[in-house]
Amino acid sequence: MPIFNYKAKDKYGVPIEGIMEAAAASAVASRLSGMGYTPVSIAEEETSALNNLEDFLSKYTSVKTEEMIVFIRQLSVIIGAGVPLLESLEAVYDQVASKRFKKIVLNIRREIEGGSSFSDALAREPKIFPPVFTSMVKAGEKAGILSEVLERLANLLERDYDNLQKIKSATRYPVIVIAALVIAFIIVVTFIIPRFSALYSAFKTELPLPTRILLGINFVIRNYFFAIIAGISVLAYSIKKVLQTERGKTFWDRFALSVPIFGILVSKLSLARFCRMLAAMLKSGIPVVEGLSITKNTVDNRIISNVISNIEEEVIRGGSLSEPMRGSKIFPPIAIQMVAIGEKAGALEGMLEKVADYFDRDADYMIKNLTPLLEPLLILMLAFLVTLLALGVFLPMWDMVKFIKS
């Protein structure tokens, strides 16, 4: 639908202006009149072929986390200053960069103008605003603390984003080194080794094992390259399909937790996210059972999500939060003790935040030491490949020298 820029006056004659998405200018005028405004001017935004192409492409692009954080934080500040929600959304709209997100904000405004609550409007965009988001906003609307709730949500998103960036930064060096090794190995095997093979065969001597291995790899690459690519593609597609099934996802999540170093890191980050989100929901006035029901779906790992489901069932039966944690074997004793103390003292939200901080500190320490931990493995890989290449190239040369001398 086209977008219209409008100017109007409220019942006191105060001029207002904004934007609205509608089928026609008459629909904009009708909606403004229904809101108690007197339309002054309504003009459709000009569109070009380039804009139409951008609109089409925007449907297939996702909203960046950084943009979402800025949007929520700005909205929190403006609402906290006493500005009405619709005007706050209009003010934030001008700061939104992506076409896709602009369209989403427009849709939210339109829903609110039509009588929907803010949380209901967000719920109609489930791919952008997950249940934990809409539930906290709904609780914030009821309690009259929407600005505070939005600030908590921005903090949660920012924490997740920071952790992801730290992991990317820590793994960037190992990934670059491994990629460089693989490329160098392929270049040597594909272009350098074949040049020596003709020379080696002229002397009719048996080639050393490392050279035969490299020549074998070269033969496979030259003769079965497309078959290898096709096989890898089929295998990747099959694995993707299997991992989309419930059993496949469960198997992968269990495997992820069992991988040395990375498994512990995944566990700590998932538990930190769970504790922090549950604390934020409890602070927003959401009951424990409802909070557990929502937060279990925000944890990416199914094994940990199943543990949270068991905790939820125990709490529904009237049990405490700490007891099922003790039997899960995922939460460390210190975290269980802190939650138990928080329950007894009636300060569960605050204690859950401290537990989340504990997990985050451990995860930060592991991320900082990730590269030093992986360096021995990289050195071993480098030593193996360099040794194989060196022996594959130089051993036959030594044999040729001996052959010539004899």
Quick tags:
17 helices, three-stranded antiparallel beta sheet, mainly alpha, extended, Receptor-associated Protein, 75% helix, 406 residues
3D structure, described in words:
It comes from Candidatus Saganbacteria bacterium. Belongs to the GSP F family. It is found in: Cell inner membrane. Pfam families: T2SSF. With 406 residues, the chain is mostly helical. Among the domains are: 1-46; 262-368, Type II secretion system (T2SS), domain F (Receptor-associated Protein, Up-down Bundle), CATH 1.20.81.30. The protein contains 17 helices and three strands. It has helices at 25-34, 49-58, 65-80, 85-93, 99-113, 118-123, 131-143, 146-202, 209-243, 246-258, 262-283, 288-295, 302-316, 322-326, 333-345, 348-368, 370-405, and strands at residues 3-9, 15-21, 38-44. The chain has a three-stranded antiparallel sheet with strand order 2-1-3. A hairpin with a 5-residue loop joins strand 1 (3-9) and strand 2. Helix 4 runs antiparallel to helix 5 (99-113), helix 9 packs antiparallel against helix 17 (370-405) and helix 10 crosses helix 11. The chain is extended and about 110 Å long. The relative contact order is 0.07.
How do the helices and strands line up, and which of them pair or pack?
Elements: E1 3-9, E2 15-21, H1 25-34, E3 38-44, H2 49-58, H3 65-80, H4 85-93, H5 99-113, H6 118-123, H7 131-143, H8 146-202, H9 209-243, H10 246-258, H11 262-283, H12 288-295, H13 302-316, H14 322-326, H15 333-345, H16 348-368, H17 370-405
